[in-house]
From TrEMBL:
Organism phylogeny: Bacteria, Pseudomonadati, Pseudomonadota, Alphaproteobacteria, Hyphomicrobiales
GST N-terminal domain residues: 1-79
Pfam families: GST_N_2
Gene3D superfamilies on file: 1.20.1050.10, Glutaredoxin
PROSITE patterns linked: GST_NTER (PS50404)
InterPro entries: Glutathione_S-Trfase_N, Thioredoxin-like_sf
Matching SUPFAM superfamilies: Thioredoxin-like
UniProt superkingdom: Bacteria
Protein name per UniProt: GST N-terminal domain-containing protein
Length: 198
């Protein structure tokens, strides 16, 4: 299997953590630049986005949560959906909304308009980030060790992406309970080896 990623994408990290937690070897991961239309990436995925996987047969798999769904069917144990299903999906969806809002600001600021963050739509995305994190901080996903579920994975990916991209933002919230959750998974190889960097 080939795994095409970059070093910052929260979507790619969700897929990579899920693969790692399911026991896949991440050492062959290929780092590409989706914004430079990397030929290897474009050949597999006309959307030129990461994550993009290629199965042993060369079939492209895209979209972080579809990859997670595929993994869950392909390798049911350990499950990434072991907790109470409705709550897990609800929390994961909330964290995914935060990830989407942050990625939207970053993409638009870097690729379209440096002032996007203060634009009406940018401020709307900021509201999503703040409301989403506030709710997750008030009621974090449970984690008592072992394989984390998808809600924990997406929440930690969101938290690390906040710190990567919005560390100096005056509006970035303090999140002590989520930091405590992060400390519990930080040394798991799937999290450690996929830590984002610029
Ligand atoms: N919905 C996709 C989003 C993937 C995505 O937008 N990845 C970004 C990196 S964070 C990308 O490759 N962007 C390049 C582009 O949009 O052209 C997923 O969940 O995998």
């Amino acid at each position: 299997m080939r795994i095409l990623t970059n070093t910052t994408s929260p979507y790619a990290r969700i897929a990579r953590i899920a693969l790692g937690e399911k026991g896949f070897d991440l050492s062959g991961t290929e780092i590409v630049n989706p914004w430079a239309d990397d030929p290897a990436l474009l050949k597999l995925n006309s959307a030129a986005r990461v994550p993009t996987l290629a199965t042993g047969e060369g079939l492209p798999l895209t979209e972080s949560l579809l990859i997670l769904l595929w993994l869950e069917k392909k390798v049911p144990e350990p499950s990434l959906l072991a907790g109470p299903l409705d709550r897990t999906i609800s929390l994961a969806g909330r964290a995914m909304g935060v990830v989407d809002a942050m990625a939207n600001i970053v993409t638009n600021t870097m690729q379209v308009d440096p002032g996007f963050g203060e634009h009406r739509v940018g401020l709307r995305r900021r509201r999503t980030i703040l409301d989403g994190f506030r709710a997750l901080e008030a009621d974090p996903p449970a984690y008592d060790g072992g394989t984390p579920d998808v809600a924990v994975i997406v929440t930690i990916v969101a938290l690390d992406y906040l710190r990567l991209r919005f560390r100096d933002a005056p509006w970035a919230p303090a999140l002590p309970r989520l930091d405590a959750l992060r400390a519990k998974v930080a040394e798991r190889p799937a999290f450690e080896t996929t830590a984002p960097y610029i």
